[in-house]
Amino acid sequence: MTWPNIRDDLKLFEGYHSPQLAVEVRLNTNESPLPPPNQWVSEIQREVTTIEWNRYPDRNAFELSSQLAQSHGVQPNNVVSANGSNEIIQAILLAYGGNNRSAIIFEPTYAMHAQIAKITGTEIISCDREESLLCGRSGLETLTTAKPNIVFLCSPNNPTGLIEPKETIISALEYCSKNSSLLVVDEAYGEFSDWSAIELVDNGAPIVVTRTFSKAHGFAAGRLGYAVGATRLIDGMKEVLLPYHLDSFKQIAGITALKYRSEMTQRVEYLKSQREKVSNELKNLPLHVWDSAANFILFKPLDTVDMSGNDLWKALVNDSVLVRDCSNWPNLTDCLRATIGTEQENNSFIDSLKAILG
Ligand SMILES: Cc1ncc(COP(=O)(O)O)c(C=O)c1O
User: Cβ(346) to ligand 1 under 6 A?
Assistant: First the structure.
């Protein structure tokens, strides 16, 4: 017997994996530390009993799109949902990337933009961020030389937590409008920041904003994400999504989640206040700390500390605290990223850091 070979261009991929270790404090994947409200879960359970399991789901997820559209002040045909925002990103790249097309990313950023681009045969143009870790003027200038078909901006950016200034997003959109390119703004952490590029969405603008229920809504297990953009862009994405890709359970869960928006906002406010507390504590330690507009914080040991980022990560793991080791990611030497947890988890994390850093 001889085995079929995987595509040659996939062989060199490392994939995107966050090690899952059995620890007491898990602050490595930017999930919400809080489960969704009990009433939401009970309501979903009740609604699930109404599903006709022998029938396919509503192919266009119309009710979910309508509710999402209403929440963002757009029309239902400006919205499409999928199995997590990763599937949304895949649909964007399948429809607007692919063979002989390119996408630009600004490193360091969310690794799956490049990973999914490669899987879809889209050429990746990797551009370094400025020292501030923002895309900045130099990033915008690169657009005119690199001429990408797709421009990825992530705001707040994972793993830096920084929001891209509104002017940068507007300038990138202007470039895209004049050059038949598509601007994708990944707002997986948008609920934690004060401004959203969704306000730039218009049927005449080549911008798609991606969102997820995995973070602020505390629904990572359910795998639900969506995009908001011009109708013709959304229609293009629908062309490549599989028929009936969004199951009935997920549609119900999303519609129900939107009824509990005020509870979600309260949770976001709690996590933001925890973020400020953790950030202040980290700044009192021999660490460089980036200000975050998301539910995680990027930091690294100062030169005065005789420890690499990876040493610090291992010491935290020994103390049963798991954060994300970003120290071998592009432009992030020695950096670690900690998700904001519950007050108790955050206190354990800070206590461990204090003990390790003396
Ligand atoms: C910036 C960013 N975009 C998208 C995603 C994917 O989210 P989802 O769970 O909706 O696929 C993540 C997940 O960590 C993320 O950090």
Answer: no
